Amino acid sequence: MGHVYVDAVLVGPRGQMELRNMLVDTGATYTMLEEGKLVAVGALGPLTANVELSDGRVVEARIYMAKLRVGGREAPILAATFPGVREVIGIQALEALGLKVSPTMGELEAIRPSDTAYFYRA
Q1: Portion of the chain with pLDDT greater than 90, in percent
Q2: Higher pLDDT residue, 77 or 117?
Q3: Structural contact between residues 26 and 94, judged by C-beta atoms closer than 8 angstroms
Q4: Contact yes or no for 30/80 (Cβ under 8 A)
Q5: Residue 32: beta bridge partners?
Q6: CATH fold for the domain made of 5-110
Q7: Which of 46, 99, 103, 112 has the smallest number of CB atoms closer than 10 Å to its CB?
Q8: Given this model, what pLDDT does residue 114 score?
């Protein structure tokens, strides 16, 4: 399987923005976006947190909350940003959207019905 790319829409209180040809990175916890895009749609935040990158560097990232729409599904996500960020859709967003990467098809597939969340009692 190669890389998986999708078109998405970033949604916030001030509007929405199309995100074309976004790399899906199942090794990334958060969706990573340029801060200007998050600010433009009015994403909530930021909070700051130290985030470890795949090369071992730790950066202080700004974390925003917005909604992401992919393939007719929409869910709240956390998006991280820092100078020089490489934009990707991370696993937290995929889980929120109820999607996973199909290793045989090389595309996203549903893991549950749209607009459904599961709640467990302790």
Answers
A1: 80
A2: 77
A3: yes
A4: yes
A5: 80, 88
A6: Cathepsin D, subunit A; domain 1 (2.40.70)
A7: 103
A8: 75
Q: Where are the domains of the chain?
A: 5-110
Instruction: Give yes or no for a contact between 30 and 79, defined as CB atoms under 8 angstroms apart.
Output: yes
What number of residues does the chain have?
Answer: 122
pLDDT tens digit sequence for 36-53: 999 999 999 999 999 999
- Type of residue numbered 121: R
In the numeric block, which tokens belong to residue 62? 């700004």
Burial 35-74 (b: 16+ CB within 10 A, else e): bebbeebebebbeeeebeeeeeeeeebbbbebbbbbeebb
First to last CA, the chain: 38
